[in-house]
Amino acid sequence: MRLWWERSDLGYSSEGRLQLGGKDLATLAEAGTTPAFLYSLPRATANLQAVHAALDSAGITRHRIFYAMKANRFMPLLTAFAQSGLCGIDVCSPEEMLHALACGFSESDISYTGTSISEADLDIISRHPGILINCDSQSTIRRLARRGVFTKIGLRINPAIGTGYGDSQLLSYSGDKSTKFGIYIEQFDETLALAASLGLDIVRIHFHTGCGYLERQLPVWERVLEACCSFMDRIPRLEAINIGGGLGVRHKESDGTLDLSQWADVIRRRLGKYNCEIQVEPGDRIIKDAGVLVLRVNTVEHKKDTLFAGVDGGFNHACEPVYYGMPCEPVPAVLAGPKDEVFAQDALVPTTIAGNINEALDVWCKGFPLPVIREGELLVLLNAGGYAAAMSSNHCMRGRHYERLLL
């Protein structure tokens, strides 16, 4: 049998041991410590290449990828990306910008799109005039212009429509309700006039309207692109359109997928009329399914009628399952028998996986059908490569974790 999440580089060996990129995950975790984040560079690289290939096949030959650092900032990973030449990098704070430079990216490789930017932020940004900066407010434009460093800038816009994983409003950056992100159409002409009066040339439009969208959300995403055309049509010297990120991955068996060729066709249909570079900022699509989180089971017992399996890592290590409903499906690192027997429907037991943080929210999954779990065994949480370690905290002073890049 083949489990829904298994693929050529992720699955069980003939001995029933889970492997990522040919590496035995239990062995790697035992050699270090748990919680352990393990990332496959070959998978992440293949994901980057797949986005390039989809855009090329759609005839969008003038394109550029800026990997979204906020998804995962592990230095060995970013250094490998910088050396590969496959992508630039998207940053949203001065600290991320400096980290990108330390990992080997040049200023011209960096796309900076921040929000609520302070004077201290602008002081640091202005020391790096080679970056591509996108402003999301009139306040930022005024204060940036006073420094006299940049002559060309991008504008982050808000088309008042967005979409994300599972159509969740929590994952939409734009919609009926006003958000803090970008310039709305009501203030757009005023913003263009302000930039012109300050000697700033608007050469790029940027938008990012949601996270984790799949094929089901593509019709809405196409409406997003259509709405953004009203902004772009008013820019006389448009050099680039940055469509942001948000490309999702499959989190559970019932999820759909995201066919990159269909995604690229939408871009071609809606933006092909503009003679400029298309820029995209994927994070999850590149790294999420290239990473796993390995945890050790320390407690297995019933509480009333619920079987709990307690593990040595909590929601402070990966908050998306709790906050955004984007699950990291748990699977055993080592099987106790043949896969088809272990994962047979009548052999699975509804199990609630709970973390070690003293908060009611700290539950990885509730009543999930799993093979029998025993104390001391290792569990692997899938799709933990993005927005996990990068968003982790030291809540209850349990933030310690191990990270390793698999080559």
Count up the helices: 12
What CATH architecture label of the largest domain applies?
A: Alpha-Beta Barrel
- Helix percentage: 25-40%
Mean of residue pLDDT values: 95
Global outline: elongated
CATH class descriptor of the largest domain: Alpha Beta
Strand content: 15-25%
Pairing-aware structural class of the strands and helices?
Answer: alpha/beta
Query: Any idea of the CATH topology of the largest domain?
Result: TIM Barrel
* Overall strand count: 19
Distance between the termini: 28 Å
Point out poorly predicted stretches: none
Radius of gyration: 22 Å
CATH superfamily of the largest domain: Alanine racemase
Q: What kind of sheet is the major sheet?
A: 8 strands, mixed
| Tally of discrete structural domains | 2
Description of the molecule:
The protein is of the alpha/beta class and 407 residues long. It has 2 domains: 10-40 and 289-406, Lyase, Ornithine Decarboxylase, Chain A, domain 1; 62-282, Alpha-Beta Barrel (TIM Barrel), CATH 3.20.20. 26% of the residues lie in helices and 23% in strands. It is built from 12 helices and 19 strands. The model has no long low-confidence stretch (mean pLDDT 95).
Summarize the SSE layout with pairings.
Blueprint: E1 10-12, E2 18-20, E3 23-24, H1 25-31, E4 36-40, H2 41-57, E5 63-68, H3 75-84, E6 88-91, H4 94-102, E7 110-113, H5 119-125, E8 132-135, H6 138-145, E9 152-156, H7 188-197, E10 201-206, H8 218-232, E11 240-242, H9 260-271, E12 277-280, H10 284-287, E13 291-303, E14 306-311, H11 320-323, E15 330-332, H12 339-342, E16 349-354, E17 363-370, E18 378-381, E19 402-406
Parallel strand pairs: 4-19, 5-6, 5-12, 6-7, 7-8, 8-9, 9-10, 10-11, 11-12, 14-16
Antiparallel strand pairs: 1-2, 2-3, 4-13, 13-14, 13-18, 15-18, 16-17
Helix pairs in contact: 2-9, 8-9
